[in-house]
Amino acid sequence: MTLSIRAVSPADEADWCRLYAGYREFYREPADPAKVQAAWRMLFDPATRLEGLVAVHDGVVVGLANWREFPDQLSVSTGIFLDDLFVSPEARGQGAGEQLLEALAQVARDRGIAVVRWITAPDNATARRLYDRVAELAPWVTYDLVPRASSAAS
C-alpha cells in the first residue's frame, strides 16, 4: 500500500470523522456523532493546541494521529503527547501506524522535542506489537482522577 502522511486539513472532515468514530468504538465509547464533531473542531481550535496527521491512500484518509506538545518540567524539555492513533481496519498491517509514528518522530526531531509519549489499553495487543518494535515501554503507571461534586453538608 502506497501511503502519504501529511497534516490534517479541513477537507479531511468526512474521512477523519469516520475514522474517529471507529476509534471511539474500538475503545468501547458510545457512538456519539456530536462528540466526534466536537473532537474534529478541537483540531482547528488554536486554544486546544492540538495538531493532527493523517495517512492517505488513493485520496482516502486511512489513519489518523492527534497530538499536542507538553512541557516536561522534570527533564526541562518539551514532549509530544500522542492522544489518538487509529488506522482503519482495512488498512491495518500495511504500515500506516508505523508511518504515522515515524512522521511524528520527525516532527519531534524538527522541533527539537525530546520524546513522543502515549498510552494504550493493556489489551490492545496488535498495536502493542508495533509500539514494542518502535518505542520503549515507559516505567509510568497512569491514573485518572475524576472530579466529583462536593458532598459537604450545607
UniProtKB/TrEMBL annotation:
<keyword id="KW-0012">Acyltransferase</keyword>
<feature type="domain" description="N-acetyltransferase">
    <location>
        <begin position="6"/>
        <end position="154"/>
    </location>
</feature>
<keyword id="KW-0808">Transferase</keyword>
<dbReference type="GO" id="GO:0016747">
    <property type="term" value="F:acyltransferase activity, transferring groups other than amino-acyl groups"/>
</dbReference>
<dbReference type="Pfam" id="PF00583">
    <property type="entry name" value="Acetyltransf_1"/>
</dbReference>
<dbReference type="InterPro" id="IPR000182">
    <property type="entry name" value="GNAT_dom"/>
</dbReference>
<dbReference type="InterPro" id="IPR050832">
    <property type="entry name" value="Bact_Acetyltransf"/>
</dbReference>
<dbReference type="InterPro" id="IPR016181">
    <property type="entry name" value="Acyl_CoA_acyltransferase"/>
</dbReference>
<protein>
    <recommendedName>
        <fullName>N-acetyltransferase domain-containing protein</fullName>
    </recommendedName>
</protein>
